[in-house]
Amino acid sequence: MKSSNPIFSRRGFDRPAGAGSAGDHLVNPYAGVGGSSLKESPTVRMTMTMDDVIVRTAATLGTVVLTAALSWVLLPVDQDALGRSYGIAVTAAVTAFVLSLVQTFKRTPSPALILGYAAFEGVFLGVISDTTSTYVAPGVIVQAVLGTFAVFAGVLIAYRMRWIRVTRRFFGFVLASATGFLLLTAVDLLFSAFGAGNGLGLGSGGLGVVFGVAGVLLGACFLALDFKQVEDAIAYGAAREESWLAAFGLTATLVWIYLEALRVLTILRDDT
User: Fold this and answer.
1) Alpha helices in the chain (DSSP H)
2) Do the beta carbons of residue 12 and residue 233 sit within 8 Å?
3) Angle at alpha carbon of residue 157, lines to 156 and 162, rounded to 5°
4) Which residue of 110, 139, 168, 204 is 20 to 30 Å from 242, comparing CA positions?
5) How far is residue 189's CA from residue 160's CA, in Å, rounded to a whole number?
6) What burial class does residue 208 get, using C-beta atoms within 10 Å of its C-beta: 0-12 exposed, 13-18 middle, 19+ buried?
């Protein structure tokens, strides 16, 4: 089963030809055809392990945090410089999006592209977080970060305990929900851009809170899909470098959850 996260749809995360199920013993799924053994293969291809995923995810998330902290300190958000900082943030967001698309359509993972995506994403998050904390809801950033990692820990525990079972039906539900969520977001932005004031009202009030909570829950579902794809990739003997794709996917999902949590907490703080 492929994830709705496009970066997990690369060939390294699919079951190699001739590989068994997740419970089968895989000696070397990348060995030459014709039943050649590991000793007969001229080269041994390193396969992905959970340690590889953890290390690369830590590196990618660490890059996001570092650049977010630097942009928070170095890019002022006072009234005189707010426009310039916003312009840098938007440019960084667009650059991160372009880099993510390039990596998505590459046949092999590129650590430079992935870390570049993380760096520019961090700049965007740093400016947005600093602005929100300064002008809208002081102290909300810590709550959003803690909430993001609470969701991550909760989904991980639920997945490991098999309280969440990722099936094709689950995958279809998440894909349909994500499509509807993104369409509503696009319509809301269009209405706002063409003079409809608050758009569909998804950025404030009770409707905004409900929509933000739905975004957090959707991000949690994406985490479950990501965990399943990592588990399957390790079981099927994906190449070691594919762990960069796992780090990429997990980082993108955590950024999604953080932004939705920040939306909910900001609205709640603004309404009190």
Assistant:
1) 50-74, 82-105, 111-131, 140-160, 168-193, 205-236, 243-271
2) yes
3) 100
4) 168
5) 38
6) buried
Judged by DSSP in three states, 137 sits in coil
Torsions phi, psi of 239, nearest 5?
-60, 150
Beta-carbon-side half-sphere exposure of residue 192 (alpha carbons within 13 Å): 13
CB burial class (10 A; 0-12, 13-18, 19+) of residue 206? exposed
In the numeric block, which tokens belong to residue 141?
Answer: 């950033």
Picking from 65, 59, 67, the residue whose alpha carbon sits closest to that of residue 89 is 67
pLDDT tens-digit series, residues 121-162: 999 999 999 988 888 788 899 999 999 999 999 999 999 999
Nearest to 264 by CA among 195, 192, 207: 207
| Cβ count near 105 (within 10 Å) | 9
- In order of 40, 112, 114, 145, 248, the CA distances from 180 in angstroms are 51, 32, 27, 26, 24
